[in-house]
Amino acid sequence: MTSPHRVVVLAVDGVYPFELGIPSRVFGAAGGRYEVLTCSVDGLSVRTNSDFSITVEHGPEALRTADTVVIPPFVAPDVTAEVPRAMVQALASVAPGARLVSICTGAFVLAAAGLLDGRPATTHWMVADLFRAWFPHVALDPDVLFIDDGDVLTSAGAASGLDICLHIIRKDHGSEVANQVARMCVVPPWREGGQAQYIQHPVPAATASGTATARQWALENLHESLTLTDLAEHSHMSLRTFARRFTEEVGTSPGRWLIQQRVERARHLLETTDLAVDDIAGQVGFAGGTSLREHLHAAIGVSPLAYRRTFRGTLSPAH
Q1: pTM, entire model
Q2: Element (H or E) spanning 115, and its range?
Q3: Do the beta carbons of residue 5 and residue 172 sit within 8 Å?
Q4: 162 vs 158, which has greater pLDDT?
Q5: CA 196, CA 144: separation in Å to the nearest integer?
Q6: Does 68 share its domain with 216?
Q7: Which DSSP symbol is given to 58?
Q8: Which residue range is the domain that position 284 belongs to?
């Protein structure tokens, strides 16, 4: 039996308890596919940003055994441009090839250790200017939820930690497993990394009509040739009002959202059925197999056949 993928969470003084618990909660719901350990740089208790400290079971030696290392965020006053020597030594023990993941201000740790130089990364939008000032060699993009740069992944604040953990599960085991985990954790199963962080988006008034009903209707009719006019009419709004309200609520345009949902549905069908690519394209609303191939490649960089092979093993000659 294959050993579970080991995720080691490195807790830093000033850590936010909510984000600290995200990896254990999300990866722990993946049916034993992951083992999650929590460690500190010295094996001692860790001060949180709340009125309590936590005791961890492991010291920095756990990092040597990690397949994935997650650094959760810590309170802003504890952010510095210099990594404490103990932290540098702890990160140096991570095995080559291990995946590094940060949530929110955890990116400061990776950057200060020189692990993000020349690479794209993100962090919480509120500390973006400080991050740029301290780490000019990092290609910071503070307008997205998370960035996957292969063996290094960075995410924005709070709930984007859920997004990046679900993204990793989807990347490792496919959308069916990720969706099951999302249902277990009662969170949205998928938000694209390139979706905007919610900066200065006002919450719609309680009396204002929203676009949720139109989105649900669209998901039930993805096989149709849906237009912005269709969605706006379903919400009883003008095109301009609907487009504005949709972007405020979802963080992306209706057209881009539709493509994302169609790609996601196509991925699910590639993983769970033997349908031909053209048939899948028709079921999810793309014009044909060529269109599906283009959008899937743009989203995840592979062809439908390659994606299916990844999650379903060797296919019969008929495919």
Answers
A1: 0.76
A2: none
A3: yes
A4: 162
A5: 5
A6: no
A7: B
A8: 205-319
